[in-house]
Amino acid sequence: MNETVEQKTDAGSGLGERIRRLRLARHMSLGDLTTLVNISRSFLSQVEQGKTMPSVTTLKSIANSLNVTVGSLIDEPPEMTCPVIRSNNRPKIEHLQSGVTLEALTCRDMHKVMEPFFIRLQARASSGNDGYSHRGQEFGIVLQGSMQVHVDGIQYDLNEGDSIYFDSTRSHRFVNPGDIETLAMWVVSPPTF
Predict the structure, then answer these.
(1) Which pLDDT tens digit goes with each residue over 51-93?
(2) Interior/surface letters 17-46, b for 16+ CB within 10 angstroms, e for the rest
(3) 115: helix, coil or strand?
(4) What's CA 171's distance to the chain center, in Å?
């Protein structure tokens, strides 16, 4: 089962409450969702209570099982009323996996065809040991530091200014191999975050 280290954050409690509300709105029990996501009941219960944060892989699986995007779980503004997101007001999820933060760069809009966001990886952080896949395509560019992107088991080493583009149906994950924070801009189409 792919779970995560336990950390409690304010973002975690909001995220957990949104997952719980969506699960109940779909008339799903804890057991129903844990079976779909392949995690334990106790772990999902802790996520819903804000006591722990899921890994990127687990969060994407939860969103897919609830038929929503990850972005809809991270408290994005409810509709696109303004095309500008200020840098100090980006919706974010911290500590998805130890040392990983995602920051949304757009408002939620069910009609948008791509999802841009920042990925911040602390030194030696990763999206998890297991790769994940979903429909669509991805583009990423490293703005600071370095990143290893593993696609179908092949490791691509990216440094500042390097970019990558791949089909999201291929198993993928990312790692910061360095000793400084990595910042990358990522775009997924269609939106899954």
Answers:
(1) 888 888 888 899 889 988 787 787 554 555 668 888 888 878 7
(2) ebbbebbeeeebebeebbeebebeeebbeb
(3) strand
(4) 15
- What are the tens digits of pLDDT across the range 106-148? 876 656 788 899 999 999 999 888 888 888 899 999 999 999 9
Torsions phi, psi for 146 (to 5 deg): -140, 160
Determine how many CB atoms are found less than 10 A away from the CB of residue 180: 12
Which one-letter DSSP state was computed for residue 101?
Answer: E
Please give the model's pTM, rounded to 2 decimal places: 0.65
State the SS3 of 126-176.
ECCCCCECCCCEEEEEEEECEEEEEECCEEEEEECCCEEEEECCCCEEEEC
Structure tokens at 134: 């979903």
For the domain made up of 10-73, give the CATH fold: 434 Repressor (Amino-terminal Domain) (1.10.260)
Domain spans in the chain, listed from the N-terminal domain onward: 10-73, 87-189
- CATH fold, domain 87-189, is Jelly Rolls (2.60.120)
Buried-exposed string 121-149: b where 16+ CB fall within 10 A, e elsewhere = bbeebbbbeebbebebebebbbebbbbbb
